[in-house]
Please model this.
Amino acid sequence: MNIRLSKRIQETGTYAFAAIDEKVAFLQSQGVEVIDFGVGDPKSPPPSFVIENLNTAAEKRKASGYPSYIGSPDFRQACTDYMQREFNVTLDPETEICSTIGSKEAVFNFPLTLVDQGDIVICPSPGYPPYRKGTQFAGGQVYTLPLLEENHYLMDYASVPQDICDRAKIIWINYPNSPTGAVATDQWYKGLIAWARKNNIVIAADEGCYIEIYFDEKPKSILEFGKEGIITFYSMSKRNNMTMFRIGFVAGDEKIVSAFKKVKTNIDSGTPTFIQDVSIMALEDTSHIMQMRNEYAQKRKILLDAFASRGLPRCQSASTFYLWQKAPEGKSGEDLANTLVDIGIVAIPGAAISHPTDEGINPGEQFIRLALVPTMEEIMEAADRIVHRLTI
Ligand SMILES: Cc1ncc(COP(=O)(O)O)c(C=O)c1O
Model:
């Protein structure tokens, strides 16, 4: 039989992070002791009370059937309380919150709420791959806005040509930013909101993944500056080391959240209710977050010092658990990633998670991304290899 794949699948390459997993598996099969800074998947477990309460929650919900599509009332109330406590943002759990199966599905499916064939979605580059793929699978077109060092990695929305603005439905923003670690300023948020409202462009802010992993000032939520025309995406994956649990939520403008619920009820059946139950506890707890933040700060310093000792630029960022490390003058991110592989260190070349602009500039070309997820011992071992064996 001739199985004819859809054009969208034929045109889809390997998911950037799947390629990294393959590379790690290959090196390991060759007997290399690999330290993997590739995928941003924390190796540490969730807080112990989450695991301890799983059984009780499963017992309580054992005959509850399918979960709610939009999240249990208790979970949505916990999300509302969280946003009030952390950002002083008041939301209605009935209309302005919806649970997700983690941010990936939410980000990928979100364009279905607003995008018709040929509409434009403005995406950052480098950026989380589902911003682009979700747009394309929904029939939209991507306009690439680069994150540049000279702009402190803030998207230069004012540079988007008017004919693109006229066709654009969504702008994806991601601050605290993966991979650059940049945090947006109040002034930037205010300017962006005014620009987006003038052009009738919805702001989709993928902000909640790393918003509590910061090193200096606490980052703000865009919802502190307004709600109309804005939807935010929150995830418990990195905040609580709960990538495996698949849970998060969206919050924002009631009209947009309502459209998102409609998409969601047609696509999935929600996160298991017993997982929502233990997630409420995780959302309420702040002590384990402080500990996590301190640990990432230590890991970041160890690696920054190691790279600096070899004459590489010190790329210190304000937030997230990523290092967006620049290669030495005259070398590419790919060159740097390859020399690191030679000493058993896996990082993602920036170009693998960034796309060229219409002018042909690839903003990730000179960089690599390292996710600070290995254990402290592994980080120290990696630093030792960099200091004594890196040749670039
Ligand atoms: C910027 C960003 N957004 C969203 C996600 C998705 O997180 P999850 O689907 O685990 O909630 C990630 C995961 O790495 C991310 O880096």
Q: What stands out?
A: The radius of gyration is 21 Å. The domain at 7-45+288-389 is CATH 3.90.1150.10 (Aspartate Aminotransferase, domain 1). The chain has two domains: 7-45+288-389, 64-284. The CA atoms of residues 322 and 371 lie 5 Å apart.
